[in-house]
Design a protein that fits this description.
Layout (H helix, E strand, L loop, with lengths): L7 H4 L14 H7 L6 H10 L1 H21 L4 E7 L24 H12 L3 H7 L3 H10 L5 H10 L1 E4 L10 E7 L2 H23 L1
Antiparallel strand pairs: 1-3, 2-3
């Protein structure tokens, strides 16, 4: 009998001579990788979209200019506190050189109290008890709660301690507000409130 002849490509022994198998070229492999960036094509795309880029940049610049002119002015008041004649704490006995057995001198301790209260929320609470200070804050933030007003006032104050290396032998207190006259009154009331709290702990 005659034997059946099975084509070799059907049996899988050899490759199909009619198949068109192609190896991926280097260019197609490079384009298939999303991590690769074609800078030449990027430059062409940016150049084609130059009008849109100019419009967006112009709008952002215009918004910045409008915001600058429409935003309220901020005024800054500063005050320097030197120990003894600026702080104005109650006079203490001359023979009292330390506080409750501490090695810290009473004058240093008192001045440290003032410095600590200059940055405390208790001072904001005490300052807002002054009718003048309360009226200023209420006029600027009429819809804010009492807690929010204390936070706003506290965040408006910046205190820099003495620093001999920077030739600053004083405490620098600064305050930012939207009105020059109110700014000066606020920083004065803030310092007085801090000294009042310090005195209450010493007396």
């Amino acid at each position: 009998g005659s034997a059946d002849i099975i084509p070799s490509f059907v049996a899988g022994k050899t490759k199909d001579p009619f198949s068109m198998e192609q190896k991926p070229s280097a260019a197609s492999a490079q384009s298939a990788n999303p991590a690769e960036i074609d800078f030449f094509q990027l430059c062409i795309t940016l150049w084609e979209q130059r009008l849109l880029i100019f419009v967006i940049t112009g709008l952002i610049t215009l918004c910045g200019v409008v915001f600058t002119y429409l935003s309220p002015d901020r005024f800054k008041a500063e005050d320097k506190l030197y120990w003894s004649y600026d702080v104005g704490l109650p006079e203490l006995p001359e023979d009292l050189t330390s506080f409750k057995g501490s090695s810290i001198g009473i004058e240093d301790y008192a001045f440290g109290l003032v410095q600590r209260h200059l940055s405390s929320e208790k001072t904001a609470f005490a300052a807002l008890e002054d009718p003048k200070i309360e009226a200023i804050v209420n006029s600027s933030y009429p819809l804010s709660s009492s807690i929010a007003k204390r936070k706003i006032l506290l965040n408006s104050v910046k205190v820099m301690p003495p620093n001999n290396k920077k030739n600053r032998p004083y405490v620098l207190v600064s305050l930012l507000w939207d009105d020059a006259v109110d700014c000066a009154q606020l920083i004065e009331g803030w310092i007085q409130a801090a000294m009042k709290l310090a005195k209450s702990e010493l007396v």
